Amino acid sequence: MVTSKQQLARPAERAGQGGAVRRVAVVSGGASGIGREVSTRLADEGYAVAVLDVDGEGAKLVAKELSAAGARALGYQVDVSDRAQVDNAIENIRDELGAIGVLICSAAVAVQEPFADITAESWNRILAINLTGTFNCIQSVIKDMVDAKWGRVVLISSMAAQVGAPTMASYSASKGGVIALTKTLALEYASSGLTVNTIAPSAIDTPSVRKKQAAGKLPPSDVLGQSLPVGRIGTGTDIAASCAFLCSDEASFITGQTMGVNGGAFTG
């Protein structure tokens, strides 16, 4: 958690490599878990950060903490499956912070249920948030990036989309769609100065994972870690560090890729 004692340079005051001023970053699902860590990391690197989350109070709290530490940050209550809410928030962000140069799509939900028990309502909800929500966010901001001839889009997928996950068909399918979307948009917008990549984590220590562990739906973290070659589960900071690199100017030759931040669990 960021504290007011940490010194974060405002984007207008802190220059990146080559003197470039840091850009405006939007993080969906930024109130907790991976999204919160990403928001904190980008703010620490000098980006102006807009935190979007269905938990509006949580989003505003994260933004308040980042602002207290010296960052330029705002929080918005947004259901990413609702295009009108997304567009409204993006317009407000443009007015308050400026054109958007970086988008991280972390908002997602996961439900464990046997395939035969999945209802159409449950299936549609997962895809509406995880896949259509990603589409909504990208389409709402991409004009800014095209106009600037520079942009970074980083989508959070899952190793479940690469290897499958029993009782998680809807989640795996939605995250597989995110990977396919990444490849397509990377090719479509490469000549416009944009890069589009996805990060596919394995087990990550997040509030949602801890909740499932408490309910007996997942093994304890030390047991999960033993199943990974590196001997531990991942952290939000592992994902945030990867995001920060993919958002940098140094990553300009990387696009259309799925970065496996998975402790060696999948090497394909």
Structural summary, described in words:
The protein has 268 residues and is an alpha/beta fold. It has one domain: NAD(P)-binding Rossmann-like Domain (Rossmann fold, 3-Layer(aba) Sandwich). Helix content is 44%, strand content 16%. It is built from 9 helices and 9 strands. The chain has a 7-stranded parallel β-sheet with strand order 3-2-1-4-5-6-9, with helices on both faces. Helix 1 crosses helix 9 and helix 3 runs parallel beside helix 4. The longest helix is centred in the middle third of the chain and has 29 residues.
CATH class: Alpha Beta
Helices, by number, come to: 9
Q: What is the percent of helical residues?
A: 40-55%
General form: globular
- Please give the alpha-carbon distance between the first and last residues: 34 Å
Number of strands: 9
Question: CATH topology, anyone?
Answer: Rossmann fold
CATH superfamily: NAD(P)-binding Rossmann-like Domain
Short description:
The chain is of the alpha/beta class. The chain has nine helices and nine strands. The strands form two sheets. The protein has a seven-stranded parallel beta sheet, with helices on both faces. The protein has a two-stranded parallel ribbon with strand order 7-8.
